[in-house]
Amino acid sequence: MAAAIAAPVHLLGQTQPIESLMAAADVGVLASHFGEGFPNVLAESMACGLPCIATDVGDAAQVVGDTGQVLPPGDTKALAAAMARWEDPAMPLAAMGQAARQRVEQLYDITSIIRQYEDMWSDLVRLTGD
Questions:
Q1: Residue 120 CB: number of other CB atoms within 10 A?
Q2: Per-residue confidence in pLDDT tens, the chain, 130 aa
Q3: Residue 8: phi, psi to the nearest 5?
Q4: Separation CA 57–CA 74 (nearest Å)
Q5: Cα torsion 41, 46, 51, 55: sign
Q6: How many angstroms from the chain centroid is the CA of residue 114?
Q7: How far, in Å, CA of 112 to CA of 110, rounded?
Q8: 3-state SS, one letter per residue, for the chain
Q9: Mind listing the domains of the chain with CATH numbers?
Q10: How far, in Å, CA of 81 to CA of 93, rounded?
C-alpha cells in the first residue's frame, strides 16, 4: 500500500511559512479519530481560504459549520468518498473557501476571542458577587 501512494506524497518535514503550502492546496482535511479540542489546523486552513473536510471530533464541527463537510470519525469510506466528490471540477471550492475564511474571521479573530473571554470573566464575577 505504501508504494501505491508514494508518487503523490511528499514528506516535507517542518516547513515555514505554512501559508505557501496552504496556497497550493485545494481543500483542508482533518481525519482524526479522537483527541482534538479546538483543531487549529482547521481554522488555519479556513483562514487561508480552504474549505475543509473534517471528522466530527472535538470542536471540528463547530469550527467548520456549514462551510465544509463533517464526517463520522473512523469512517474511512465516507472520507474517501467525500474527498473524491471534492475533486469534481463542478464543486464550488472557491466559494466554499471564501465562506470558510469569512467564518474564521467572524468567529475566531483575536479581537472577537478577547471580547468573548472578557464577557465570560465579567459574567463569572457578576455571578459570584466578587
A1: 10
A2: 445 555 667 777 887 777 788 888 899 999 999 878 999 999 999 999 999 999 999 999 999 999 999 999 999 999 999 999 998 889 999 999 999 999 999 999 899 889 989 999 999 999 987 6
A3: -85, 0
A4: 10
A5: positive
A6: 21
A7: 5
A8: CHHHHHCCCCCCCCCCCHHHHHHHCCCEEECCCCCCCCCHHHHHHHHCCCCEEEECCCCHHHHHCCCCEEECCCCHHHHHHHHHHCCCCCCCHHHHHHHHHHHHHHHHCHHHHHHHHHHHHHHHHHHHCC
A9: 2-128 (3.40.50.2000)
A10: 16
The pLDDT of residue 8 is: 66
Cell of 35: 483527541
